[in-house]
Amino acid sequence: MNSCGTAAAPKGDTIGQTQKPIRYRIRTVDHMITPPAPPHEVTQLLLDWSKGNQTALDKLMPLIYRELRRLAHQYLGRERVGHTLQTTDLVHEAYLRLVDQRRVRWQNRSHFFGVAAQLMRRILVDHARRHKRVKRGGGAPMVSLDETAVVSNQTDFDLLALDAALNRLAEIDQRKARIVELRFFGGLDVQETAAFLKISEVTVMRDWKMAKAWLHRELSDES
After folding, report:
1. Which residues pair with 41 in a beta bridge?
2. Distance of CA 109 to the CA centre of its chain
3. How far is the C-alpha of 75 from the C-alpha of 89, rounded, in Å?
4. How confident is the model at residue 35 (pLDDT cuts 50, 70, 90)?
């Protein structure tokens, strides 16, 4: 799950039919607020990475991670009754703050969101793990498995269970797991996901549908 390039080919379509969306609990993010990196720095690293410079990716990831943590603290710290937030909003705002959009082409944008999806997952899961013993029950935000991760006050499955299920899915079919990560945590649409992974849009839609059904069964069995 740590690769930011094209995922390995699937080992087989062992995943069944889709079912209704499912929901996962998270809690507020509590991190130090730091200023964003200069737009020209992130933009140049993004352009260099999209041209094949892997060293640029190593420098890019901590800059995006820092901004996503800062925004998560800012937004999720406003928790209140009825509050909802799509994680793709955080990724999109980080993009707007960090990148000079006049220099970044559409495919480079997909590269940014691809990295941010992986980091957004790490931020939320790390937070849920740290606060697992605190603030149990009502009032804790959750995430629903749909086109993007949606945070609200309702409760259902735990985000840690989703993360563990995604890891199991990656052992069976790495590409399907990566598609869930890109769409769920990063908010990439079908076209952007296909471009990032260098596969067809039909394949993305098929794998997305089958992966959601597989995750639903896994988490329903656990509950």
Report:
1. none
2. 15
3. 10
4. low
Instruction: Report the range of poorest mean pLDDT among 6-20, 86-100, 119-133.
Output: 6-20
Tokens linked to 51:
């041209």
Residues 6+ apart with CB under 8 A from 70: 31, 33, 34, 36
Tokens of 145: 């498995």
Backbone angles phi, psi at 68, to 5 degrees: -65, -40
Tell me the domain boundaries of the chain: 23-222
In the β-sheet with 23-25, what is the strand arrangement from edge to edge?
85-86, 150-152, 142-144, 23-25, 157-158
Name the residue with higher pLDDT: 1 or 105. 105
Taking CA atoms, 171 is separated from 102, 179, 209, 211, 219, in Å, by 39, 14, 18, 13, 16
> Taking the CB of residue 204, how many other CB atoms lie within 10 A of it?
25
- DSSP label at residue 96: H
Q: In sequence order, what DSSP letters do the residues of 174-191 get, joined into one string? A: HHHHHHHHHHHTT---HH
- H or E, element range at 59: helix 54-76
Tell me how far apart the alpha carbons of residues 201 and 190 are, in angstroms, rounded to a whole number: 6
